[in-house]
Amino acid sequence: MSERPFHHGNLRAVLLDEAVTVLRGSGVDGLSLRDLARRAGVSHGAPRSHFVDRQALLDALAVTGFERLTAAVRRALARSGDDLDGRFRAVARAYVDFAIDEAALMELMFQAKESGGGGPTAESAATLFAVLDGAMGPRPGDGGDEDARTTFGMLFAATMQGIAALVASRRLERTHADGLIDAATDMMLASDLRARAVTER
User: Fold this and answer.
1) % of the chain surpassing 90 pLDDT
2) Would you say 106 and 65 are in contact if contact means Cβ atoms under 8 Å apart?
3) Do 137 and 46 sit in the same domain of this protein?
4) Which residues constitute the domain of residue 186?
5) Which stretches of the chain are DSSP H helices?
6) What percent of the chain has pLDDT over 70?
7) Distances (CA, A) of 136 to 86, 113, 130
8) d(CA 153, CA 118)
9) What is the largest CA-CA distance in the chain?
10) Burial, 91: exposed, middle or buried (Cβ in 10 Å; 0-12, 13-18, 19+)?
């Protein structure tokens, strides 16, 4: 039996795709570079030309997750209207759909060790929140305050991830998620309108 080849056309992308598949079925504990090499049909040492160790793979997966979620949000925005209400709801649904479909990846994204200290994971997370900020428009009274904008973005993310977690844990039927998304966005939009009215007095 001949040895598997060391090289593979676009091995890094193939390994990441295989890793996402493993995540969906087995979670983070099911990931190993050796198993991914087997699944990709390459020698067991080949993945180390792209990921020096398992943690490097996890960091790269987190980046991939943020990039995919950002792309999903951008697609939702491209299909939505120009009004804030339409953008807000489109982004909320895209976010929740991704968080439900990629629950294990989402958990990994927000647990990445590197994310608190800079680097590609933090940069890709910042890109996501910048897109969310752009979709939601300026927050009333923030005066361009970056902390205020970040707080609103994190509140939005926490709310939508909470809805997704209820679905993923089967405490909420997926068919009922839209109703909860609408209720949450209604409350956030109403709060936004009240804040704007106060600011404009």
Assistant:
1) 48
2) yes
3) no
4) 55-200
5) 11-26, 33-40, 54-79, 84-101, 103-109, 120-136, 146-168, 174-200
6) 79
7) 10, 28, 10
8) 19
9) 79
10) buried
Rounded CA-CA distance 77/86 in Å is 9
Which residue's entry shows tokens 């994971």? 121
What 3-state DSSP class applies to 201?
coil
For position 127, which CATH number holds?
1.10.357.10
The mean per-residue pLDDT over the stretch 72-91 comes to 89
Residues 174 and 166: beta-carbon distance below 8 Å = no
Q: Residue type at 188? A: M
**Same domain membership, residue 59 and residue 139:** yes
Tokens standing for 196? 């704007």
Closest CA to 129 of 95, 99, 163: 95
Distance CA 111, CA 61 (A): 11
Average pLDDT of the chain to the nearest whole number: 82
- pLDDT score at 115: 44
State whether 93 and 132 are in the same domain: yes
Question: What CA–CA distance (Å, rounded) separates 95 from 72?
Answer: 8
